[in-house]
């Protein structure tokens, strides 16, 4: 509570996403190596999302290729990686039914199904 300047209090409910974001950023700031701008937090928790842009090639011969660009059938594909600490995912809607003990049933969804929106094929 003291470290967060009373932003997060014992016994008071807070947003878990806001808390984990604050915790990771605070730990990173205190554990950053002075020689490089990295820490054990970034090494363990940072992921990379590969982004592929498909750009129709211009006919005027004006190529502005980057190092990661490739051409296929007149379409220029530009690939780059974006680092992230937290990736927002669309979770399935809450269940409409309850179990025999009158509690909500938590649906189990495969992680691969949740990540499908990033495969470049699924809308």
UniProtKB/TrEMBL annotation:
Pfam family membership, one: UCH
One GO MF term attached to the UniProt entry: cysteine-type deubiquitinase activity
Record Gene3D superfamilies: Cysteine proteinases
Domain Peptidase C19 ubiquitin carboxyl-terminal hydrolase: 2-57
GO biological process terms held by the UniProt record: protein deubiquitination
Designated name of the protein: Peptidase C19 ubiquitin carboxyl-terminal hydrolase domain-containing protein
Native species: Prunus armeniaca
């Amino acid at each position: 509570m003291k470290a967060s300047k009373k932003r997060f209090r014992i016994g008071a409910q807070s947003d878990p996403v806001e808390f984990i974001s604050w915790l990771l950023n605070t730990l990173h700031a205190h554990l950053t190596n002075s020689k490089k701008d990295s820490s054990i937090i970034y090494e363990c928790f940072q992921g990379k999302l590969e982004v592929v842009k498909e750009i129709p090639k211009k006919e005027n011969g004006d190529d502005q290729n980057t190092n990661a660009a490739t051409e296929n059938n007149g379409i220029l594909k530009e690939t780059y990686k974006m680092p992230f600490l937290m990736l927002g995912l669309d979770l399935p809607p809450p269940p409409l039914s309850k179990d025999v003990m009158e509690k909500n049933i938590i649906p189990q969804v495969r992680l691969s199904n949740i990540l499908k929106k990033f495969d470049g094929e699924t809308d």
